[in-house]
Each structure stands twice: as structure tokens, then as C-alpha cells.
Amino acid sequence: MDQIPILKVHDALLVSIQVDMHDRLAMQLQDDLTTRITETHARGVLIDISSLDVVDSFIGRMLGNIAAVSRILDAVTVVVGMQPAVAITLVELGLQLEGVRTALNVERGLALLNELLLVRDGVDGIPAR
Amino acid sequence: MARSTGSKIAPTVREQESDILQDWLRSQLAAVRSRSGAISDEALRDDSRRFLSRFSQALGRDGADDGLAAAWDETRAMLGELSRSRAVQGFSPAETASFVFSLKRPLFEQLSRAHGTDARALSDDIWRVTELLDGFGLYTIETFQKSREEIIARQQQEMLELSTPVTQIWDGILAVPLIGTLDSARTQVVMENLLTAIVQNEAVIAIIDITGVPTVDTLVAQHLLRTVSAARLMGAECIISGIRPQIAQTIVHLGVDLGDIETKATLADALRLGLARRGLVVTQRHAAGPAPVTTAAAAS
After folding, report:
1. The complex's ipTM?
2. Is the pTM for the entire model greater than 0.90?
3. CA distances from B103 to A63, B25, B46 (A)
4. Which residues in chain B have Cβ-Cβ distances shorter than 8 Å to A79?
5. Contact at CB, B195 and A97, closer than 8 angstroms
């Protein structure tokens, strides 16, 4: 069965969705990601959905859920690389992904993540883990 | 027609072609004052001559009785072209069709001269010519209408495309000057164009300028909010500019909630905000130079 790899980069987790997202996969991703956040003490999550060209309300809500769960676990979520068609679909579905930060590509997303963490934790605010 | 017994249409037209043309032109030029379209007398003469010569040739062929027959293909093609060009020149349908109908009088006069006292044969011929010319007249109107509709459809398409340009005004800053009323179809086009441009230009800020939007009601506001949300999902921030005083009042009166979207009065203000967000400042190079040059430099 497919599994979406979760890569650890410094204190952030990088998830790149390269396959067609179906509901089971999304559920599994949510489970895996929350587990990995607690395991690795990650402070940020970057989800790259540039290869995702079809999205439904379930997947849309899942992205929101992942962000909400991550926030509870003290990690900031940034969704990057959303396709125009996907953005339009999500807006049509009424899913504005409130509370999810977005960026155009992975590069920008990492920059945004660093910026957000700097604001949140300060330069010396890295907790000893 | 030439084969019909007792018919003198074909020989009459062939022999009296120049006389008919003279009479026809005279009546057409007499009506010239009331024409709304612009066409020179020379062009009118040329059109008339070409039509009459094709008409005369086709009369001599097989199946000339039927205006839809192959014998008339050339004539119909010429009429179609003429009617299309007149539609573009701004003629009314009646004026275009009367080009054909005005041929009746000179033609009937020649026919009555040819038939002399044979009233029966004359009325038969007149009936045939009337049927033919009426068919052609209706054909010109039909073609006229069709070309008008083509023009309208093309213009609609052009307007849709023209009215939704997305331009890059700085590195990573896009401007979307909206002109005209925002309906669902327009919003869709604007949204698609904007999101595509965001990807292409790697933009982080999009300025939506609504100076050209005549009215903003709850529906238009909703469309704007949707566009802003979609851009935000792509990682770009939107600034709405060009909100005129009356529109600002309308928005408040309607109770439209623009949420936390940045709004600015003018495009210049929005650009200033956009530059600031990108960490750019605009400075003057020479304090008292004759021609001030503005440049942007990184703030750091």
C-alpha cells in the first residue's frame, strides 16, 4: 500500500504529496504525521501539494485538520505549491483553510517557516529537547 | 427560365443589360441621401455591374427557375460577400436588401416592353423574377444577420479577455485592474488569470484595482473575497485598491465584511504598501536634480 514519505529537515518535517490522494491515504498521512511530530519534536511542517491536481472537500478538510493537529502539538504548518485549479476548487467548496499558512513553492515555504518560528520562539528560543 | 415556353427574361436581360444597369443605378443613387452606411458611388456601380452580369449569365443556365439551384451559386456567393461587407460598413438590413429589390422596377419595365400586349406572358415572367429576387433579398438579410451575430460574439469574447489583464508591476508584485461589472463568469476568468500569473511570476503580492468597477454590491464583494481567498491559498497576499468614496460608503451600508483584506484608496498607495512588504523603498537619487530619478533599493 502507498505511503507518503515524511522527511525530517532540521526541526521541520517535509511532506511531498506526489501521488493521487485518496481518503485512506489522507487519514494515514494524518496519523503518521502526528506520530512523527511527537517523535521528532518538530516545530514546523511543510506540505508540498504541487503534484496534487485534483482535490475534494475531504482532502481539503484533511489539510485543515493536519494544520490544527500540528498546532496543538506546537508545530507550524505551511502548505506550498497549490495549483491554481485546486485553489479555485477549494474556494468554491467554501474551504478557505483558515489558520493554514501558504507559500508559492518549497523554497518560499521554508523561508516563511523560518520567519514564523523566529517570530514565535525568538533567536534563542529553541527549547532544549 | 430560358427554357420555359414564352419566357423572355433571359434574352431581355442579356440584350438590355446596359439599359437595365443604367436605370437601376439611377434609382439606387437617387436613394443615396438616405443611406446610413458609407459606400462610394463607384463601389456601388461596380457591385451593381457585377451582380447584373452574374444574374444574366445564370439565367441562361439549366435550373435557373430555382433560386437555390447550382446555377445561382456564383450569384449567391457574390451577394453573401456584399452583405457581409455592408454589415461591417454599418448599413441597415433594409438598405442591404433593397440593393436586390431595387432591381425589380427597371427589370419589369424592360420585360413589359419586350412582351408588348401579351399580358399573360408578362405576368408569368414578372412572377418568376419576383420569386427569384425575393429569394436573393431574403438571402442577403440572412447573411447580414449572421455576420452581425459573428461580430457581436467576437466582441463579447474580446471584451471578456480585454477587461481582465494581469500585469507585473514589480518583482513579485502583480496588478489586476478590473474594468466593468464583476459577474460570476468574469470572476472566474479573473481568478484563473490571476492565479496563473502568480505561478508564472512567482508573485507574493497581487493588487486588485477596482477603480473601473462601477458598482460594488454584496455579490461583487463576495466575488472579490473569493478571488482573494484563492490567491491566499496559493501563498500570495491581495491588496484591494481604487475604492472610490461612494463605493466605500456603499460597502459599509451594505454591511459587507471585507475581513482582514488590506484596502487602499489608490493603486499608488497599494504599490507603496506592496513595496514595503517586500522590504523595498523608493528613494530619490539626487536631492535637487533637474530630472528626478526614482529607484528602488533593498531596505537592508
Report:
1. 0.74
2. no
3. 75, 9, 15
4. 233
5. no
